[in-house]
Specification:
It contains 3 helices and 8 strands, in the order H-H-E-E-E-E-E-E-H-E-E. The chain is mainly beta. It has a single domain, classed as Sortase, Chain: A. The chain starts with 20 loop residues before the first helix and ends with a strand.
């Protein structure tokens, strides 16, 4: 049975999304609408403003990938994420907060600037127990966007999330998958897990010119392996 996004109890909107397959389809339609040629999306009511800068790049871990894959860090406290780094594919991008629009769909990040990703703010913050979800566009009308090379991420790669309290949550990729949008694995993406998880999502596959949308999605699954905290 499909699941609604994790921690929908935190939803502060009138008419909260019901825990049904229909509700989940509405929620997911926002992410599946990340398209090229769609025009620049305005900042919606309740959506955070687009960040204009990114913090200093955090350090990468030096342990071998096979060691890191077997490492699981304890959950971190709640703190809003501010930037995402994926060294393998050269991503260094600010994060904005995404909520739900009036139809119950996840808001999209704007297409301009292209180097912007969004964290679904009604789920866990990256580093907390559960599946934190970050989405980004594959491309825009004029060229590649923040997650244009997400399909190049490999098992064992690191994803570093800067957080507003100055801490850094370092994740290691468990796997990557390509799926048709009609077969989107809602339970795997939004389903609860007993460890701090991360899901990175973008569009992929062939472009449907009639629907003005890509026919598939690329999804990266990762888990927390290290937590850096600012000195007291």
């Amino acid at each position: 049975m499909p699941l609604t996004p994790h921690r929908t109890r935190r939803l502060a909107l009138g008419g909260a999304v019901a825990a049904t397959a229909a509700g989940l389809l509405l929620i997911w339609s926002g992410i599946s609408g990340m398209i090229s040629g769609g025009g620049s999306a305005p900042v919606a009511a309740g959506q955070s403003a687009v960040p204009t800068n990114i913090p200093r790049r955090p350090p990468s871990l030096t342990e071998p990938a096979d060691v890191l894959i077997r490492t699981f860090a304890r959950p971190m406290g709640e703190s809003v994420p501010t930037a995402v780094y994926i060294p393998r594919i050269g991503v260094a991008a600010p994060l904005m907060q995404l909520g739900l629009d009036a139809t119950g769909a996840i808001e999209n990040p704007p297409l301009d600037p292209a180097n912007i990703a969004g964290w679904y703010r009604y789920g866990p913050t990256p580093g907390q127990r559960g599946p934190a979800v970050i989405t980004g566009h594959f491309d825009t009308r004029t060229g590649p966007a923040v997650f244009a090379r997400l399909d190049k991420v490999r098992r064992g790669d690191q994803v570093q999330i800067m957080r507003s309290d100055g801490s850094v949550a370092v994740f290691v990729v468990d796997r990557r998958e390509h799926v048709a949008k009609k077969d989107f694995p809602s339970a795997r993406v939004y389903g609860d897990v007993k460890y701090p998880g991360l899901r990175l999502v973008t569009c992929g596959g062939a472009f449907d010119r009639t629907a003005h949308s890509y026919r598939g999605n690329t999804i990266v699954y990762a888990h927390l392996v290290r937590a850096y905290h600012p000195p007291r």
